[in-house]
Structures are given as structure tokens and as C-alpha cells.
Amino acid sequence: MKSLKERILSEGKYLGNGILKVDGFLNHQLYPDLTMQMGREFCKRLSQHGVSGVTKIVTAETSGIAPALAAAVAFDAPLVFARKKRPITMPDGYFSSEAPSHTKGGITTLMISPEYLRADDQVVIIDDFLATGLTTKALIEAIQKSGARVLGIGAVIEKGFEGGRTVLESFGVPIVSLAVIERLDESGIYLRD
Amino acid sequence: MKSLKERILSEGKYLGNGILKVDGFLNHQLYPDLTMQMGREFCKRLSQHGVSGVTKIVTAETSGIAPALAAAVAFDAPLVFARKKRPITMPDGYFSSEAPSHTKGGITTLMISPEYLRADDQVVIIDDFLATGLTTKALIEAIQKSGARVLGIGAVIEKGFEGGRTVLESFGVPIVSLAVIERLDESGIYLRD
Prior knowledge:
2 copies of one chain form a homodimer.
Chain A: H1 2-11, E1 13-14, E2 20-21, H2 23-27, E3 29-30, H3 32-48, E4 56-60, H4 65-75, E5 79-82, E6 95-100, E7 107-112, E8 122-130, H5 134-145, E9 149-159, H6 164-169, E10 175-185, E11 188-191
Parallel strand pairs in A: 4-5, 4-8, 8-9, 9-10
Antiparallel strand pairs in A: 1-2, 6-7, 10-11
Helix pairs in contact in A: 3-4
């Protein structure tokens, strides 16, 4: 996605330790046009991979919500965002799975209420980053506990060097990234064409 | 907003202790049409109150992000969501303010990077709930530290009996709620006409 790649190259900053800062258009500030375009692009490209009959978009709070809402608009399907803390409004019997936390080094539990995922749901997962793939893997596992089927996966930015795609390929569904970073170091940010 | 009021009456649940559960369309699952309509309604009604020249929409993570993105689309202005934990990507000198936490009884610090709020910004604040008003008040205080001006406030659901409007009226800007709950008890949910 050209407009996204341009933003990554112009505003992305490498902070060392494999950390790419894209707060200016993904993790702290969002441009409405760019964000809504991400949703249309996920829909177009996953459809080209044969994904159809989507009944739910699922993401994890927090930074997944905006691109996932854009995808929900494009697919015309409700969005469910997995919670990382159990709200007092979430009933027992929720679907959950654990993933290592990016930021804190600990473990994050992703929770989805059984009220909003059913065995006949067909799900597309959207997230901001595909890096190690372990957050997405946890989302897939939580979703599968409901009996719902995952049809496809979309990530705004894939860090191609962290192996996440290999982790997720075992699930046998299309994986679409809107921009893939091949290499990231002091000399710059290198995107796949 | 009629479609929102219908959802509140059909899907909202009173859980006791003043807690209204609207996870089905605001805090856990989101309908794309309803959410995007919220954004248009905020824009229309704040404009009717004389709000113009908006350069930023500001909200607090997590549940504010979706309606605020919808408002950002309608106002055609970037969205900045205040963080509750400082990410490693946030530089020193951030604008912050403290609010009592809804869910945990403690204190939440709302943080906005100085990179995404400037003294000449004109801001509309959007949040999911207006209850005690203290989260919105903290957002206003954080924003004012940047020198930016707050032009208006929008909440998806106002709990009219928790006094938040009175707290915020001292800032002298229009406050728009898409649905106002007058009363909430075992007998039902009572909306203002």
C-alpha cells in the first residue's frame, strides 16, 4: 500500500533493539484517510485470496482497534476487540489465550466474551503489527475455542525478519500485510517492494 | 441519535452499582455502521454549536478510539489517543494529567506526546462515556498544557445523573452527548427524549 509505505519511510523511526516507532500514524496519532484506506486494502487483498462470508473482524486492544474498525467498515461485519484486562462486564466462560507482552516482557491474556463470538462465525483477524506472530497466534487460539473459523489474517506492518509469518502459516489461511519491513537498522528502514 | 438509543434499550444491561453494560456495541463489539454514524453525528451537532476549524480529535484509550476515529473521519482531522501507560516510544516532556480509574479505583495517568499536539491545535475531545467527567477533565488539562485549545466535547453516552456535565461546563465549550441516560435501576434504563 503505497501511501502507507511512504509514511513509514518519511515518519517511521528506528529506535534500536528492533523497535520501529510509527506513533505518528499508527500507535498514537491516526490519519483518518490513511486508516480507512487500510481497511479497504485488507478487504480487497483478502478477497483476492478467496476470503468471503466474513461475519466478524477480531483484533486485540489497543492499537489494533483503528485499522480493525476500518476493516469492519470495508467487510461490513462487526468488530470484536479482545480485552487484556477482564472488565467487570465480561461473564464467565470467556475465550482466552496467552501471549508474551511486547512492551512489558510478561504475559498478556487476551479475552473474548462468548456473547460476541459464535461457533458459526467466520473471522478475519486484523492487527497493527505482525512481528513474532505470537499475539495473532493467541487470538487464533482464543477464537478457535468458540468454534468459530478464522478465514484470514491482516497486519498493517509486518516485520519480515521476526519470523511471525512462519508461525502463522501452520494455520493454513491467507496472511496479508500492507507493508513488509525487510530490514531495520541504524542505516534505515528497508521495505519489500 | 435514534439508532444508538434503540441499541441502548435493546442491548444495554444494568448490572447494579450504576454500571451500564454496553459491550455489545461500544466496549467490546462494535457495529461499523453505527460507529461511523456516531462520528457524523458528533460533527453535525458540534458544528451546529459553532465548532469549526478543528485540527485534532483527542480521546483516551481504549473504548474511546472507535467513536473518535469515526469523528476524525467526519471532521477530516487526525486523531490522537492519549495513552495510559507510557510506551517506550514516547519522548520526555509529554503532556499528562491524572484521573480516577473507572474500573480499578486507582489513578490513571493520561499521556500525550508533544509530537502530536501543538499550541495552534484546535481540539475536539471524544469519549465513550460522560459520567463523572473526570476523565474528560484530565484530557482537557493535558491538552491545555500543550497550549492547544479545546473547542468542544462529545460523548457517546452520558450518564445524566453522575454530574459530569456540571464539572465540564466550567470550561465553557459545547458538550454533545448522543444519548443521555436519566435514570438507571433494576426497573430499567430511562433515556432523555
